[in-house]
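Quick one: structure tokens for this chain, please?
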Amino acid sequence: MEQRTHVISLPGAPGSALAESARERAWAEFVVRKREPAVAPVVLHSWMRSRDMFQIDPALKRSPIVLPEDESCQRRERLEALGVGAPVLERFGEDLRETQDMLALCDADGYVLATAGHPGVIEEIAEVNLRVGGSWNEQAAGTNGIGTALAEGRTVQVIGAEHYVSAWQRWVCTGAPIRHPITGETIAVIDVTGYKERVQAHTFLAVQATAALIEQRLLLEFTLDEKLLCDRLFARNVCSPCVARRAGRRCVTSSGRSSRQRWSAAADIPKGTNRPSAPARSAARSAS
């Protein structure tokens, strides 16, 4: 039996720096000849979702969905918690101005909320609707750094003809999910996009590390919030009618709910609802 060789690999794996012509041949095998090429599983699975589940047209010229400005603003407001990661993203975006790359921040549905980086790349790639309001989940745009990172739940790099839609194939996209520090759910994705001829293996690591750094800052923010809440509860004797104790770093009352659980619920506030301050929440609990 003929041994099959993977012609497309994840960054850092043996054989990952192969010629774009090999990627193009694999793409043509799948899209034109309807055969299953010997590609990395992450690529093949995404291509199959794009074709069989979402019926994406590989001849698309641009992402077909762009949100109105007001809805994009609403989606940004829902990610208020990511404000603690803003300095990290701003610094990363500034660095990308020198490398001819663009940074996109997207929500968990794959909608672009903000962009930064090289102005020329930002302007050029906006032609395919990789811009604020554009939808880049796999259901809309097929295999790409944003949508495939969401589908796989991990950092991915999509190079050239690994994109299912031919119009995206002049680019290399590297996306990484950002997870909620308490629930573990994906709340956002960051993506770096640049010209495929300038693909760098270290971009994969840089995007992955940036996402991890933002997650650490989110965890620190939630940990500080939890500590302040516990301190106020004990200082004001809110827990005096019930049994309260310290369990590790958690404040537990006889109600059976930890402060971590309450903060987790408070993080998922409805759209358009302002999050009350910790003193206001404590006062509300006292009144009840």
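Residues 60-218 form a domain with the Beta-Lactamase fold (CATH 3.30.450.40).
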